Amino acid sequence: MEILKTMNLLKYYGKDENEVRALDGVNLSIMKGSFTAIVGTSGSGKSTLLHMLGGLDRPTSGSVIVDGKEIFRLKDEELTIFRRRKIGFIFQNYNLVPVLNVYENIVLPIELDGNKVDESYVNDIIKTLGLEKKLNSLPNNLSGGQQQRVAIARALASKPAIILADEPTGNLDSKTSMDVMGLLKVTSAKFKQTIVMITHNEEISQLADCIIRIEDGKIVGGEQACTR
Ligand code: ADP
Ligand code: ADP
């Protein structure tokens, strides 16, 4: 089943001679439960694409369909709610709340949404990511790899339709990067969680189930569909 699709997505910045075609007709199709890497060099349009997929910024034209919904038909306030309910984000710099412990960070988005924590699901995530012994620790007392594992747990915990990861291994050494990638792969398969990540690192991208290449705002090699 297709969970995420873009149709002729365009994003231009600037005007006239300053116009930059950051996305120049992107067609993507991503299947539920797949773990996809979007790989490209600096300036190829990765961040712009991730922002569009997550409804963080509006395209010049074209559409993004998440879980059957054309997200840019929504008004700003509706889009904000849709994003909170349906999309999990993982950032390069983890973005954990420093005054909350690991467990509190993991369940924070669920509680902010006024939902009940699915304890057995969350405990399974915590175990899978090896965080059982760190639940009472504050983020600043954890290594980078551990902090990113907490961020992955937090993204998974609210069962979003898709998780979008922005260079999730960008601040990690190469061994820890491979460990984190392995965990993304395992959690995607185990929890049937769709994950789309961007990276400039070819070696990192190889660990995904599916690799999409972007150059100068275009998917290279034609339109891409990702299946497991
Ligand atoms: P990547 O994430 O692959 O490095 P980006 O999506 O950040 O690529 O950028 C794609 C292109 O769009 C680049 O040429 C970049 O300079 C340009 N760009 C990105 N954001 C803006 C902006 N806010 N204003 C103008 N140009 C931008
Ligand atoms: P991981 O691979 O899980 O990121 P590391 O190999 O970086 O862990 O760290 C090994 C151990 O050292 C961890 O169990 C952690 O408790 C401890 N450690 C690493 N970095 C820090 C840090 N900045 N502050 C506190 N403890 C740390």
From TrEMBL:
GO cellular component: membrane protein complex
PROSITE patterns assigned: ABC_TRANSPORTER_1 (PS00211), ABC_TRANSPORTER_2 (PS50893)
Residues covered by the ABC transporter domain: 4-228
InterPro entries: AAA+_ATPase, ABC_transporter-like_ATP-bd, ABC_transporter-like_CS, MacB-like_ATP-bd, P-loop_NTPase
Keyword ATP-binding among UniProt keywords: yes
GO molecular function per UniProt: ATP binding; ATP hydrolysis activity; transmembrane transporter activity
Keywords: ATP-binding, Nucleotide-binding, Transport
Pfam family, one: ABC_tran
Family: Belongs to the ABC transporter superfamily.
Record's protein name: Putative ABC transport system ATP-binding protein
